[in-house]
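New to this. Please check this fold:
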Amino acid sequence: MIARLRRARQDESGFALVIALAVTVVFSMTVITVIEAASSSSRASDMSKNRVSAYDLAEAGISNANALLSAKNPYDQHLLHPHGQDQPADCASPPANPTGAALLGNTCSPLTYTLDGGAVTVWGWLDTSTANWTITSTGTVTRNAFASRPATKTLTVVVHIRARASQQNVTPAWNYVFVKDTTSSVCNITLDQTTALTSSLYTEGNLCFKNSSSISETNAADPVLLEVRGKVVWLSGASKGVGQSSPLQEVTSAKIGGGCATGAVTNTAHTCQRPPSGSDYFYVKSGGYTSQADAIAAPSLTSSDWDNSYQTATISRLSPCAAGGLAPTTFDNDTTRNTSLTTAFNLTPGTNYTCQTKNTNGSVIGELDWDASSHVLSVRGTVFIDGNVTINGVVKYRGVNKYGTHPSGSGGSDGLGGTMAMYVSGTVSLSNNGVFCGWDTVHDTAAYNGSSCDFTAWTPATSMFMFVAHGGVTLNQSSYFQGAIFSEGNVSLGQSAQTEGPIITNTLTLGQSVQMKPLPGLADLPLGAPGNPNTSGYPEQPAYGSG
């Protein structure tokens, strides 16, 4: 009996081992659980950080796309490398847009950026009818140590392009007084009496001189380029012509396709030569004369173009002024482009008026305000008048910014010098002694000297009001005009009228003693200028669609 008890006591040492093993197993499982929990927490934290980083990367892609839209032509549908059904067929080698701009290269693949912690792919497509870009940006985090695949985030936004008040001039014809008339065997332009042109001139037909009329260059900084596709003709009694003999004032270049003639357009032409080798009053700088007069393409407007301008003008019957502004019927008495206004639109009445329009983002895109006491016309955008326009007295036009204001000390940025294209389905008339002056953006004051336009002060590169008329434009006797004109009819300048600015017209009639002042080459034109596409704009705040 005693022996059995001793053996049982000796067996308890094995039970202690079992307990020790059990404790060890439980402790090991606890440690593993703690480690796994810590790893899971770290992995979740890291993945969460990666998701935030992927979002940040996608946001950076949107910012990069906006930077491209600001720096380059945002109206070029290739710019953000569109994909799928929106990809242009010529994506492998898109043309320069505008002509002369740097090529984009192959745009068939998305834009890619390598940034700190990851990469971004971006692409977008342009809705040309609304000027809205839809941009897709995907950010990918490449430093995830735990996830089986990199964290990604895709954002889709819509960015509206607000056109700049002025656009780069890519249409050479806008640097001339440009006459399209090709009627044969007639003087398509006649300069008479003391009419003096010091601006560049292009005509598809013949240029005739009478009496002491001339075209000359008075300032080497404003070179005069003369191009006549037909003949230069000195009619009976003409004593001057191209350039000046005393003091010597030679024009920079003269391209005369049909040669020179005297007496009548129908007389035989000869190579143009000035004394002593010839008898033509023809003073051109050395190397500037050639008989090769290649055509310069001029903008033209089809019926569809006119309809589109009616539909898209920032001020019109279809785009009415804000409350308190001019009534919609001021611009058209129906909603069809048909020249139906029975009363001419008076741009300069004896009482004040206002008109302002905004886009959906609240930016002012149209402004037409008249202060009758100060004679200041504040402008922005494009206007469509479905009838005739009259202008009386003194006008000094300037611009407003996207907030509708003209801060004191303004320069010419954001249209503050006054840039507008006014489309008129009828005619435009500036009264006898009427004065229509632009702005001096260097000194932020009107280019007006108290009685007439100051042609030395106007800054046309940053201040340009353009009339686009389906009918004719008449600048009556002794009037002054600073601006641009496009007419599908005739432009008529009355006796002693003085102008500065480009003109594109079918025919041109010049009264006695007209003066056309020098015009520097224009780098920019008002938004909406015929033949000049939009190539610059401001990307507005992105509207997020997903992400």
